[in-house]
Amino acid sequence: MPLNISIKNAPDHVVQRLRLRLRAARNHRSLQGELLAIIEAAASGDQPDTATNVLAEVRRLGLRTPSEAAFLIRADRDGR
After folding, report:
1. Residue 8 three-state SS
2. pLDDT tens-digit profile of 12-68?
3. Are 38 and 32 in contact (CB under 8 A)?
4. What is the rounded average pLDDT of the residues 3-14?
């Protein structure tokens, strides 16, 4: 059964760092929906990639130009 969770008195610096309103708008979600997505990602262990991880993946794939990256993205998207 679903459980209601409430966070009260969240510190301003935490709220600002989350950029919650911006993230919610960018992901086409309500504030509650964005908070739930953050909690689900934390619970599943899925964390956003860091710039270091992205660079390592780019190097692993041997990509050198933006057009090479675009080709891989289009191929992946078209394969779905």
Report:
1. coil
2. 888 888 888 888 898 899 988 988 988 888 888 766 678 887 888 888 878 788 888
3. no
4. 86
Domain count, the chain: 2
User: What is the predicted pLDDT for the residue at 8?
Assistant: 86
Structural domain containing residue 42: 1-48
How confident is the model at residue 47, as a pLDDT? 66
- pLDDT value, residue 46: 66
Alpha-carbon gap, residue 60 to 63, rounded angstroms:
8
* 3-state SS class at 29: coil
Separation between Cα atoms, residue 50 and residue 28, nearest integer Å: 23
- Are 26 and 64 part of one and the same domain? no
Query: What number of H helices and E strands is found in the chain?
Result: 5, 0
Burial class (CB in 10 A: 0-12, 13-18, 19+), 35: middle
| Residue 31 to residue 21: CA distance in whole angstroms | 7
